[in-house]
Amino acid sequence: MRFPAWRFLLWIALSIIVAGCATQPPVSTTIAGPDLSRAGRFALKAEQFGKDPEAIQGGFTWNDNGMRLSLDLTNPFGSVLARVVVDRNGATLTRSNGEVLQAATPDALVELVLGQSVPVQGLRDWLRLSMNEQSLAAMSQISRDSEGRVQSFEHHGWRVQRSRFDALGPLLLVMNRQDQSKTISIRLVIDNP
C-alpha cells in the first residue's frame, strides 16, 4: 500500500509528539530541563520494495513548555499543513482544511491516522543536548563526540546521528529505519539556534 505524501507528513509530526510523550512523565506534569523551541526544515524519503520512492519536505516549528507540546508542519512556501498539539486533554491533529482528529493519547492518534502503530520513541529527548538516563538505557551502539555528547545510536529500530550542536541540542538529526519492505530516512535541520 502506498501512503500519500500527507500521510508521511503526519507521520513525522505524530512520531515527534509520540516520542516526546513516550519516555517522559505525562504532559500534564513539568518535564525536566528547560522549555525547548525549535524551528527548521525536514526532509523525508520513503522507499518501498518494488515501488517508486516518495519524498516530502517542508518546515516545522516545535514548542515544548512541559505542559503542552505543539508542532506546526509547513510546506516549502510556509503555509501550515498540519498542527499537532498534546496537552493534558489528549492529542489533537488539525489539518489545513480544518479537519480535526483527536485521541486520548499520542499513541492512539498515530493509530487513528495511520491505521498502525509507529514504534518511534525518544525523539523529544534526542533533540535536547543532554539525554535522560531512561532514554540512554534503551539505546544501543552509542558513540560520543570528543565533548562527551551522544552523537549516534540505535533505538527501537532507528539509527540516529546527531551533529552540529548548540547550547540546546543538535542542529542536525538524521534518522534511518529499514523494515522488511521499506526504508525511511528523515533529516531535521534546526534553523533557529
Tally of alpha and pi helices: 4
Quaternary state of this entry equals single chain
Distance from first to last alpha carbon? 38 Å
Classify the helix fraction into a percent range.
10-25%
Give the count of structural domains.
1
Which structural category do the helix and sheet elements fall into?
alpha+beta
Mean pLDDT across every amino acid position: 79
Sketch the major β-sheet. Answer: 11 strands, antiparallel
What does this structure look like?
The chain is an alpha+beta fold and 193 residues long. The protein has a single domain (5-190), classed as Lipoprotein localisation LolA/LolB/LppX (outer membrane lipoprotein receptor (LolB), chain A). It is 19% helix and 44% strand. It has 4 helices and 11 strands, in the order H-E-E-E-E-E-E-H-H-H-E-E-E-E-E. It has helices at residues 5-22, 106-114, 123-126, 133-138; strands spanning 36-48, 54-64, 69-74, 80-87, 90-95, 100-103, 140-144, 150-155, 158-165, 170-178, 182-190. It has an 11-stranded antiparallel β-sheet. A hairpin with a 4-residue loop joins strand 2 and strand 3. The longest helix has 18 residues, at 5-22. It is globular. 32% of the residues are buried.
Topology record:
Elements: H1 5-22, E1 36-48, E2 54-64, E3 69-74, E4 80-87, E5 90-95, E6 100-103, H2 106-114, H3 123-126, H4 133-138, E7 140-144, E8 150-155, E9 158-165, E10 170-178, E11 182-190
Antiparallel strand pairs: 1-2, 1-11, 2-3, 3-4, 4-5, 5-6, 7-8, 8-9, 9-10, 10-11
Helix pairs in contact: 1-2
Q: What is this structure, in a nutshell?
A:
The protein is an alpha+beta fold and 193 residues long. The protein is built from 4 helices and 11 strands; from the N terminus they run αββββββαααβββββ.
